[in-house]
Amino acid sequence: MTSNGEGHYFDEFVSIMERLRSPGGCPWDREQKMTDLRTYIVEEAYELADAITEGDMCKVREEAGDLLLQIVFLSSIASEAEKNADKKLGAFDVRDVVQGIGDKLIRRHPHVFQAEKNFGADSEQVLRNWERIKQEERKDRKEDVSVLAGLPKGLPPLLKAHRVQGKAAHVGFDWPKGDLKPLFSKLDEEVAELKEAVALAGNDDTKRSTIEDELGDLLFMTVNLARHLNVNPDSALSMACNKFAERFQKVECSAAANGRHLNDCSLEELEIMWGEAKKGEVAY
Predict the structure, then answer these.
(1) In this structure, which CATH number among 1.20.1250.20, 3.60.160.10, 2.40.440.10, 1.10.287.1080 belongs to the domain 10-107?
(2) Mean per-residue pLDDT for 238-250?
(3) How far is it, in rounded angstroms, from Cα 199 to Cα 190?
(4) Considering only the top CATH level, what class is 157-229?
(5) What is the C-alpha to C-alpha distance for residues 175 and 119, in angstroms, rounded to an integer?
(6) CA distance 92 to 77
(7) Which tops the pLDDT comparison, 81 or 282?
């Protein structure tokens, strides 16, 4: 193993992790179990996504490494079951992970790796074939063959809506492409239904579930529109949150500069400061 600045490559990286987990290695690393890594995996994935959104390639590289660490860490823990007396069914190491994903990529890209080149004429057909091959794999394993099977239960709702719609679209269940009018009309319809639900509910808390239901439909349709606009709704909402936060902090600074707290300002004053905060912004 080198430590002279020449760089670490994958096999050596795996060896580093195995040494940390071995007797005489790092006490903290040795104590970790698979279940302990769940939080870190989610956290590192979000940090990588943030870095991509920021466009900072140095951070993207670093965060990609942090996420890779979790995969190698997880695989190292799994491989130890192979060595222990209480050997567990399904033990694997990182080489099995790499081989598995390599085999899957080849299997699901027959238009590239097989002699028959007519499997996928364009990206849309490729995605349809991908879903079809996945269903065939699930059928062979006697698993749920629904197109929507396999989505993580803990997936954030906004991302889940996007993925559910996309999966349905891969088998042809989608709004017509190239015509946004029906989508805007449906969006207007969902807004009208929400307004009606609010009006009918009034102050009756027993009818609040109807409002929640209609609001959910509106949000779901908004994601549909975003998908047809080729806009990632999660990224768009994240950008909106950041934009709001930046403007709000400017309002706070403006109030503080005048020796005042936001609680002491009227709504009209806040709106004026908000307008000032928007001036001179770089267009998003």
Answers:
(1) 1.10.287.1080
(2) 92
(3) 14
(4) mainly alpha
(5) 24
(6) 9
(7) 81
